[in-house]
């Protein structure tokens, strides 16, 4: 894809979300998840738009691959598993913790320099084991420690101060903001603080999808391609051994995908087809099937996506329903759906 000229910042408004997933139990719709979905074709044109794909929103950790590109552009030399960890929301497995320590050691630093919050591991099984063992929350175990270790490494390489590396005015964070605007093709609408303590930039869902496509279509060896290749080759380093995003990348050859808190996911194929999803209530049980359905609309083989089509709803221990994407996301629907009508 050719570079995209930067547009104005997306508008800040209450998102005009629409139904994107249904909970059907015993043939009756028991619940509805609202959200927004965008599907771009290989040329960057909108093939499908549901809900409000142009309002400003916070991509949360789905933006981490873009943050990693900013660091590589600034000289970060990591490759492979370590670069994947720099773009990760990891599960806190031992492989993740040891890799984060390796990044810090390459920079001549220790865990004490990390500025992210202390937490237990994000992965359920790993977290439960930590609790049984009486282990305390730590910055290293928190799911963003790889990103923070890489940020510190980037600062050391550029002789930037370490003490305030999370300040939006710090040279590192200014470089990240510049990369966000470059890859999304739009100005940042707002800046706040993410859960880990790093600056978080508001863009549109369409802009997030565009950024992912820029990574997967970039020339070999470019910062964008290096990040995309590292995450795809080391999907479990970017997430965890039991995480759905790693399983999805294994199931769809060449797919780059990243999830984020509050029901966000972005994905892009090698030819530039891309999707981005925001679930209004932040539910993962809707995020996964809606992302799978959006990828099917983008042309991915539905058979490869079948394991991600939606979890079963149980009654008395047996399946009596499921969580499914709305019919508007069916690949057999028309080329484009209209977004929700404008509010008065």
Describe what you observe in this structure.
This protein is α+β, with helices and mostly antiparallel strands and 344 residues long. It has 11 helices and 12 strands. The strands form 3 sheets. Strands 1, 2, 3, 8, 9, 10, 11 and 12 form an 8-stranded antiparallel sheet that branches. A two-stranded antiparallel sheet has the order 4-7. Strands 5-6 form a two-stranded antiparallel ribbon. The radius of gyration is 19 Å and the shape is globular. The chain starts with 17 loop residues before the first strand and ends in a 19-residue tail after the last strand.
**Main sheet overview:** 8 strands, antiparallel
What is the count of DSSP helices, taking H or I runs of 4+ residues? 11
Helix content: 25-40%
Oligomer: single chain
- Provide the low-confidence segments as ranges: 338-344
Work out the strand percent. Answer: 15-25%
Extended strand count = 12
State mean pLDDT (0 to 100 scale).
94
Principal-axes shape call: globular
Tell me the Rg in angstroms: 19 Å
- Terminal Cα separation, in Å? 37 Å
User: What letter string, H or E per element, gives the SSE order?
Assistant: EEEEHHHHHHEEEHHHEEEHHEE
Q: SS-based structural class?
A: alpha+beta
